[in-house]
Design a protein that fits this description.
- By secondary structure, this protein is mainly α.
- Strand 1 and strand 2 form a beta hairpin.
- Helix 6 packs antiparallel against helix 7, helix 6 packs across helix 10 and helix 9 packs across helix 19.
Length: 524
């Protein structure tokens, strides 16, 4: 009886997600949606400016490293000056759109890897040695870990996740969902210390010092909590993928007659030889990268601080480094195997890979305008200030207050994508306010990171959404915004609930959030 009840409940969830997908896919194409959103922002900014919409609050100023009271007003684009701005900034909006450059550069490497056959051969080997039961947790875990390399997870790993799932005869869209959930939904979690830890801790320290000048917040301040969070996100992401996403998507039908294309996992002697040589080349290049990072005066490090994470050449050049890591072994594989007979074959692979993302490039132009308009009009910042006012007006206990703070951070994230930009607004308000209530800056930072991460995968303003939609189209031409939202909503809800409960338990048990970082704060 219990199993029957569980099946009925699950089928209700699946039917609900099917309705979301159907409704979402009846919407216009993603490019058209971004166009409508851009127009809506322009019109809304005109209304807001006419009505005098504004908000005042304290905000961290990175230029002079001080917390300042700032009044933010809506900037109207529904005007002659707004029209001039939109016309003159259209090209720079497009060329400065981060996902565009990253995607084109990395696709030069991935395109060669696919065309040469090295990537397919590598996946065949992975399939042979990795049990099918471990593929989903492996994809989610690697997705979480890639956020230490910032955008590389989106560009490199999510397409690979689709290929891996397809090789295991699982639906590629489920692989995209699991990879996207790990990379973006679990953005703050990691076993390592990343650039986000350094950036956010700087904001927290500056905000805390307005109340306690001697207070220090380090990049390690959330490390213990994030280690456990990595395990949590991997488990929850795996359960959602296996129990909801894979059953809902069903068997992947690639042929027009509804049958699954069977791909042989056998390799010829020449392919085996080429794979072995290419893999050793891959290992050698990775080894060179590691060796180059070791010296304290390495060119891979930040020349001022010696850091390998914050402001380092390694992080700033991560996409070109990944491109070379893919391109060189792929070229070697193609020459040994015979799939690359001349430079014309290599150039053809470049052309093919760029052609495969032509739809993304067109969509990116419109998405870049929308993203820029939303930032220019200050609508997102005003929402942040208003959210801060709402929380300040509440009168609840510390655990309940943190849960509300997570919800506000998650809600604002739907409209303002940049984690650091939001925290520059949130930290000066909430860090001192919660310190006065006996809650540490490190706790405020953790709660913010939970809210910011869990709604990434359903936020329309996330810059990588057009790229994800393009990857999905490769495997299902009928997929659209509805498919993406219906696939990612279960992860978002599950991550939000489970991660919030973990923080609540952490607070109740009064566990350290990181080395020397307590949940509670005592003045003096």
């Amino acid at each position: 009886m219990k199993n029957k009840t569980q099946m009925q409940k699950r089928s209700l969830v699946l039917r609900f997600l099917d309705k979301i997908e159907a409704a979402g896919n009846k919407l216009p194409t993603p490019l058209t949606i971004f166009f409508y959103l851009a127009v809506f922002v322009v019109v809304l900014s005109g209304i807001g400016a006419a009505l005098g919409w504004s908000a005042t609050g304290e905000m961290y100023n990175a230029s002079n490293k001080a917390v300042e009271e700032t009044t933010v007003s809506v900037v109207s684009l529904f005007s002659i000056s707004g029209l001039q701005y939109m016309l003159t900034s259209a090209v720079t909006n497009f060329t400065s759109y981060a996902p565009l450059g990253f995607t084109i550069v990395i696709m030069l490497g991935i395109g060669v890897a696919e065309s040469s056959g090295w990537l397919n051969g590598l996946i065949k080997k992975v399939v042979k040695i990795t049990p099918a039961k471990l593929v989903t947790p492996m994809v989610v875990f690697i997705g979480v870990m890639t956020n230490v390399a910032e955008n590389a997870g989106y560009v490199v790993f999510i397409p690979l996740a689709a290929m891996i799932f397809k090789a295991y005869k699982k639906h590629p869209l489920a692989g995209i969902a699991a990879g996207f959930a790990g990379v973006s939904g679990g953005f703050s979690a990691n076993l390592l210390i990343g650039s986000a830890d350094a950036t956010l801790s700087g904001f927290s320290a500056a905000a805390a010092q307005t109340l306690d000048p001697s207070y220090a917040v380090t990049p390690l301040s959330n490390w213990f909590f994030m280690i456990v969070s990595t395990v949590l996100i991997t488990i929850v992401g795996t359960l959602v993928t296996e129990l909801v996403i894979i059953p809902r998507l069903g068997t992947y039908k690639e042929n027009g007659d509804g049958t699954l294309v069977e791909v042989s996992d056998q390799m010829s002697a020449k392919e085996e030889k080429a794979l072995t040589i290419a893999n050793w080349v891959f290992i050698a290049i990775a080894g060179l990268y590691i060796i180059a990072c070791i010296p304290q005066n390495s060119f891979m490090r930040n020349p001022d601080t010696g850091s390998l994470i914050n402001g380092s050449t390694l992080m700033n050049a991560i996409i070109p480094l990944f491109t070379l890591l893919f391109f060189i072994p792929s070229f070697v594989y193609g020459k040994v195997c015979g799939s690359f007979k001349s430079d014309k074959d290599v150039v053809a692979s470049f052309n093919k890979s760029i052609a495969s993302i032509s739809g993304f490039i067109a969509m990116a132009f419109v998405a870049a305008q929308f993203t820029n308009y939303f930032s220019k009009t200050n609508i997102g910042r005003i929402l942040s200030f208003k959210g801060a006012e709402l929380l300040q007006s509440l009168n609840i206990n510390s655990v309940g207050l943190m849960m509300c703070f997570i919800l506000v951070a998650g809600f604002v994230n739907l409209f303002m994508a940049s984690a650091s930009a939001k925290y520059a607004i949130f930290a000066p308000v909430f860090v001192p306010m919660f310190m006065k209530m006996g809650l540490s800056p490190e706790l405020t930072q953790v709660a913010y990171r939970i809210g910011d991460s869990t709604t990434n995968i359903i936020a329309p303003v996330i810059a990588w959404i057009p790229y994800i939609l393009t990857i999905m189209k490769k495997y299902d031409k009928d997929s659209g915004w509805g498919t993406l939202v219906s696939s990612m909503l279960p992860y978002s809800i599950a991550f939000l609930v489970s991660w919030s409960l973990l923080l609540a338990a952490w607070m109740i048990l009064d566990l350290p959030l990181g080395p020397g970082a307590s949940v509670f704060y005592t003045m003096g």
